[in-house]
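Postdoc handover notes: sequence design on the structure in folder B. Input tokens:
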């Protein structure tokens, strides 16, 4: 939708909602209800209007990017070439893959897939990229970055002198005034704005002494930044002019004592040997000058040794007089000068200190990101050549995506019905709040430009469960208070429920956000994508539960008809699970060792499955075989997927691929013999009335060793952080119980997959991450209730306290589990082979997680407290009747 129309529509909707709310406030005030004017209530409604309005506008004007599994993208095939000091073998090609992965990540392409094919080929798949040409140019650069002192002019001194006076390029200290502009620029406006931007954009770091390097513009007005970065071929001239490309000549030797090379404006200069290399740069990132709106620039941070070298060479250059070419420094990328600024406002033999610099100029966002990617990604160990570019279709296929959408619709509809039946009208308010949650999460993804993949959707499954869980927690606490007589009105029961549930909600969300943040900062690839979507989902669920749901529930319980019929609200009587537990009042903690024994047996059986049957790792972890066939007639990819499954490869990755004028079917799977490969080829040829084999080769894993190692490190650090948080927030015994339950859940799920012979692939990895988050969330809720009960009963035996807490939280565990299982069960039956394993893993994980949080984590904590008891917590003073802390006093906010 057009942005202007979307803005008008959003304003109209917000105005309509605000007018409706104002009418209800006016009616309530006329009836003497002054609580509607409370600042907290008005603030919640205002925040809800603002957030929903912004989310609606973003949803109407933007959409999130889709990953390779949902949308497809571009496929680029690179071939590594032998270098003078390195052979293009599999080991060096794998190193090149990791450099390319960092380069792609810095380009801002989320969720790429990179794998080695054969001995020296690399397949790069970029989601959502329709034209792979520009990306392939950036990926193919060797990216050898060196920094050189300028010794003088080259073969055309008169042109060099003009350059020296007019390139408008400076490098200077941040805290130095900009009153020493260097000469007259060939383009006066560019020269002036260049000096001004150099000072302003770097000014925020003046205390650090960061340098600013101002890019120059050609006399023709073309911006150098676009030439240097946007086209991926920095500083080169037209290839049909053999004499022009002095800078990009492969014969350029950065170690030579003197070399003549063209600067960024085409003028020849003489440079000395390299004083610094790209290895001395620790970080490079594309930034936007928000304060001065000065445009995009590349921020460079040097290593410790690099900072000293930078200060040394700028200090030496500053010893020459203004206008002398030796006062310039040349930054050269792959033999091309990308910048050769003058050093100004710098003391001789002191140099520019602080360890940072900025390349500024007429950058666009894309060109700045590309240059930063080349600098930070590092130099390729081998030169690579682009040998093929093509567009590929989604790996899941239209049928699987359509089935997933229907499964989501059916599952969420069942969840809605379950919540409304269980909690009646106040459950309906929660459903409206969940719709608001979906709107906020979708808008946040769109605004951030995130890439949505199946692992990302797994993060949302967990976040939906947490959003439902927050509402269930609140409603169960409000129902307990009202039905048990602790609160004498519905109007006060809802605020009391929110107040008592907020601790558990906060703890469970903080532990999840800790894990999500660490996965984002320490991991990469799909694990990092999971962290992004999980963070967005958790924050949106918090807003949904604590703002939207609270505002709607407050409005509902203030209606006269609801106050007269409390059962209709959903808070007037207990649910069946709680009534059943109260009638029998089982002493579950009498059997702590039996529960722990059962958990141990399950873990041993799962471990036996892993040891005996082994794990069937998918192609993402082990690599496999790639077959590509071009049928004579067009073949529907879903039909091809069915044909490959009939041959015996139901989990193979089958998608469309093709270059110019070509439509092909690509099949990737593990452990395929020549006979099986022939059967796959024949099956596709039969569908297409014949065909031609384009490619048949072995490929490496897309989740390489470095990616797997980073994911494991991130996961270990996340678990350690959660354990530390639980130990500080609760007790170390509680943290030990929660982490033990988590390990039990993961091992049992993995072991079950081993016994059943199901694949351990990228989709399963997403499921395991979701299970970990769900288990920790479940355990935290139980432990929060134990802490609260223990505070009220300080002299009681801990096992009895834990038993009471478990009985009180079991109804919530059952209701949350049921509402989360409905979409997964629908996905299991409707998702097909590619998604049924994902849904099955989550179903198993949620069932085991519900058990382990109540019957593994809690019994273990009880046993540990028996072994090393803690002093009971101090009892909080109870509010006196009639005080403002009394929940029956007026309206509690």
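Designed sequence:
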């Amino acid at each position: 939708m057009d942005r202007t129309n979307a803005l008008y529509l959003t304003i109209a909707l917000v105005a309509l909602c605000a007018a409706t709310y104002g009418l209800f406030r006016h009616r309530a005030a006329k009836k003497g209800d002054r609580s509607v004017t409370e600042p907290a209530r008005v603030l919640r409604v205002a925040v809800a209007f603002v957030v929903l309005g912004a989310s609606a506008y973003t949803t109407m004007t933007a959409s999130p990017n889709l990953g390779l599994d949902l949308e497809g993208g571009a496929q680029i095939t690179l071939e590594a070439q032998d270098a003078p000091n390195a052979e293009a073998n599999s080991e060096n090609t794998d190193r090149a893959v990791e450099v390319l992965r960092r380069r792609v990540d810095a380009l801002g392409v989320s969720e790429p897939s990179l794998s080695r094919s054969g001995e020296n080929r690399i397949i790069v798949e970029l989601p959502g990229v329709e034209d792979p040409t520009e990306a392939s140019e950036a990926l193919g650069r060797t990216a050898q970055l060196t920094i050189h002192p300028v010794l003088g002019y080259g073969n055309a001194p008169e042109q060099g002198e003009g350059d020296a006076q007019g390139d408008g390029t400076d490098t200077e200290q941040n805290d130095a005034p900009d009153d020493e502009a260097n000469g007259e620029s060939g383009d006066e406006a560019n020269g002036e704005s260049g000096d001004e931007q150099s000072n302003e954009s770097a000014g925020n770091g003046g205390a650090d002494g960061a340098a600013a390097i101002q890019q120059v513009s050609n006399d023709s007005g073309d911006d150098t930044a676009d030439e240097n970065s946007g086209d991926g071929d920095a500083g080169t001239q037209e290839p049909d002019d053999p004499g022009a490309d002095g800078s990009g000549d492969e014969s350029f030797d950065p170690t030579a004592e003197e070399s003549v090379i063209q600067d960024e404006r085409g003028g020849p200069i003489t440079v000395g040997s390299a004083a610094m290399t790209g290895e001395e740069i620790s970080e490079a990132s594309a930034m936007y000058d928000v304060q001065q709106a000065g445009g995009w620039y590349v921020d460079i941070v040097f290593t410790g040794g690099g900072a000293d070298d930078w200060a040394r060479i700028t200090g030496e250059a500053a010893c020459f007089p203004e206008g002398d070419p030796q006062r310039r420094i040349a930054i050269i990328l792959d033999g091309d000068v990308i910048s050769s600024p003058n050093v100004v406002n710098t003391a001789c033999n002191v140099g520019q200190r602080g360890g940072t610099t900025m390349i500024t100029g007429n950058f666009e966002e894309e060109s700045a990101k590309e240059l930063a990617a080349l600098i930070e990604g590092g130099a390729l160990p081998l030169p690579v050549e682009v040998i093929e570019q093509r567009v590929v279709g989604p790996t899941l296929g239209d049928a699987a995506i359509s089935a997933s959408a229907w499964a989501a619709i059916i599952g969420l509809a069942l969840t809605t019905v379950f919540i409304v039946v269980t909690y009646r009208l106040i459950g309906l308010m929660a459903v409206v709040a969940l719709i608001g949650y979906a709107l906020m999460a979708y808008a946040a993804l769109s605004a951030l430009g995130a890439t949505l993949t199946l692992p990302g959707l797994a993060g949302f499954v967990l976040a939906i469960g947490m959003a439902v869980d927050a509402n269930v927690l609140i409603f169960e606490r409000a129902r307990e208070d009202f039905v048990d007589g602790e609160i004498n009105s519905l109007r006060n029961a809802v605020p009391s429920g929110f107040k008592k549930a907020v601790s558990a909600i906060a703890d469970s969300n903080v532990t999840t956000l800790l894990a999500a943040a660490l996965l984002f900062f320490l991991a990469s690839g799909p694990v990092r994508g999971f962290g992004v979507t999980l963070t967005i989902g958790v924050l949106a669920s918090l807003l949904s539960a604590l703002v939207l749901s609270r505002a709607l529930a407050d409005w509902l319980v203030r209606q006269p008809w609801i106050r007269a019929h409390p059962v209709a609200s959903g808070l007037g009587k207990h649910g069946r699970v709680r009534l059943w537990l109260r009638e029998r009042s089982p002493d579950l903690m009498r059997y702590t060792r039996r529960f722990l024994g059962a958990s141990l047996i399950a873990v041993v059986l799962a471990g036996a499955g892993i040891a005996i049957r082994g794990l069937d790792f998918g192609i993402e972890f082990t690599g496999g075989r790639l077959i590509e066939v071009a049928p004579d007639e067009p073949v529907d990819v879903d039909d091809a997927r069915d044909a490959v499954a009939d041959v015996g490869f139901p989990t193979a990755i089958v998608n469309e691929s093709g270059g110019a004028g070509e439509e092909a079917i690509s099949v990737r799977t593990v452990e395929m013999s020549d006979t099986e490969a022939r059967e796959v080829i024949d099956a596709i040829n039969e569908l297409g009335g014949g065909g031609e084999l384009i490619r048949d080769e072995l490929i490496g894993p897309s989740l390489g060793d470095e990616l797997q190692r980073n994911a494991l490190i991130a996961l270990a650090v996340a678990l350690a952080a959660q354990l530390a948080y639980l130990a500080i927030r609760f007790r170390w015994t509680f943290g030990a119980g929660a982490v033990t339950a988590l390990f039990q859940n993961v091992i049992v799920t993995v072991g079950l997959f081993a016994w059943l012979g199901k694949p351990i692939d990228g989709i399963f990895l997403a499921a395991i991450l979701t299970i970990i988050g769900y288990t920790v969330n479940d355990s935290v809720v139980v432990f929060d209730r134990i802490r609260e009960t223990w505070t009220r009963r300080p002299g009681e035996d801990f096992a009895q306290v834990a038993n009471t807490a478990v009985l009180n939280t079991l109804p919530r565990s059952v209701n949350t589990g049921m509402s989360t299982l409905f979409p997964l069960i629908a996905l299991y039956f409707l998702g097909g082979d590619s998604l049924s394993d994902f849904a099955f893993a989550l179903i198993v994980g949620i069932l085991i997680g519900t058990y382990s949080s109540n019957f593994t984590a809690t019994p273990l904590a009880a046993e540990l407290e028996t072994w090393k008891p803690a002093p009971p917590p101090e009892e909080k003073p109870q509010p006196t009747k009639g005080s403002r802390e009394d929940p029956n006093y007026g309206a509690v906010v």
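Context for whoever picks this up: The chain has 26 helices and 24 strands. Don't rerun without checking with the PI first.
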